[in-house]
Amino acid sequence: MLRTFALSTVLVLASCSQDECAEGTASEREDTCTPGDEADTDTDTDADTDTDADTDTDADTDTDADTDTDADTDTDTDADTDTDADTDTDADTDTDADSDTDTDSDTDTDSDADADTDTDADADSDADTDTDVACAVHTLTPLDGMSSVGVTTDVVAGFTAPVSAVTLTLSSTPGTTTLATDGLSARFVPDAVLDRLTTYTATVTACGEVVRSAFTTAGSTVPAANLEGRTYVLPWTDLTFLEPSGAEQFLGTDIAYLLLETANVDTTNQTVDASTVTGISDGRGGAEQDTCRPVHEYPAVDFRGNPALRVGPEDLPVGTTSIRDMHLQGAFNADGSALTDVHLTGYIDTADLAFQPCGFVSCSPCPDGRVACLAVHGTAAQATWQAGLSISPNRYNPNGPSCP
Q1: How many domains does the chain have?
Q2: 384-395 pLDDT, tens per residue?
């Protein structure tokens, strides 16, 4: 049986974050990039392998001759004159002077030159794998070609390297542009809500290039009664991943469904409560809540853009990694039977992977500035309302017999 993981939902309309930088790449680009706009991360792997053997050839040749001039001149004058009168008058006068004049000067002439033949070549094996990243516009959201965009949406641009200046506009709409502190993103906030069923063009000028994205806003609001207490089912296999390249290598197929429930639609305050969880097959051709995974509840999500809804971020475990800062967005159709034009966005931190793909595919900056993340962007035509299906946190039981 397939097992799935939880998706949390929080509407994000605040300052720029990495998940917004992972929502895809604009299709229309005027490249006038100039050289030198780089963020030099210069990842130096210099081991500085010193092969110095320091071969000291000092023989320390001691030339001390230790010349002892001792003659030891023993002058014995013993006459021993025996007159054989048996009267031995031997005086035996031994006059041994034994002067033994040792003139040893012990001239130890150490000629040690200490000829140190240091062969140290200092063989620096520095490969200097410089991962400089050229400045470019990495993302521009809403994405080019999107429909059913909420009328309260902001425009966000993401960059592969920090920028100090940027121009971000939305057709002729007045608003304010703010550059993030790290220089990796910029946000345009319109002064008023956008018109419904209207096409807008966002334009960003930065890194010596101009990038545009055209999108269309959603239509009329959906009555609260058409959304109250409904759970929408998104089959994982319905998602087409535009990013990263070869997404199946990273994301796997261990998720069967993503479930989204709406409740307490407040038309006065323009909010809606949302709950999300992953789902499994109910054995009857539909989906049911995966009770092995926790439910994420998000009260009072901003719903001023009704019928458009955006929830997140959430870290979603999938395959051998996780989609971090994941967002799910779309627009409800008029009768509330489906969430249409669904987009799933986020990023993968390659530090979670058993291998590092950034040398083979294009990686983008992570929230901590490392150029080691892969943008994730999946699309699906719709998530469909399944009558009778509900989500309850009380059903969560990680120790159940079917849980891993």
Answers
A1: 1
A2: 999 999 999 999
Q: Structural domain of residue 148, as residue ranges?
A: 18-37+132-395
Eight-class DSSP state of 250? H
Determine, yes or no, domain membership for 351: yes
Give exposure, 252-268, as e/b (b: 16+ Cβ within 10 Å). eeebbbbbbbbbebeee
| Residue-level pLDDT at 361 | 80
**Is the peptide bond preceding residue 244 cis, with omega within 30 degrees of 0?**
yes
pLDDT digits (tens, 9 = 90+) for 259-317: 999 999 999 999 999 999 999 999 999 999 999 988 888 899 999 999 999 998 888 88
* CB proximity list for 359: less than 8 A, separation 6 or greater: none
Q: What is the pLDDT of residues 228-271, one digit of tens each?
A: 999 999 999 999 998 887 887 778 778 899 999 999 999 999 99
pLDDT in the model for residue 133: 65
Secondary element (H or E) of residue 258: strand 257-266
Which of 2, 322, 213 has the alpha carbon at shortest distance from 313?
Answer: 322
Beta-carbon neighbour count of residue 404 at 10 Å? 5
How many CB atoms are located within 10 Å of the residue 87 CB? 8
Q: Read off the CATH number of the domain in which 321 is found.
A: 2.60.40.3710
Euclidean distance between CA atoms 191 and 171, whole angstroms: 13
Residue 20 banded pLDDT, cuts 50, 70, 90: very low
Q: Is residue 158 part of a domain?
A: yes
| More reliable by pLDDT, 87 or 144 | 144
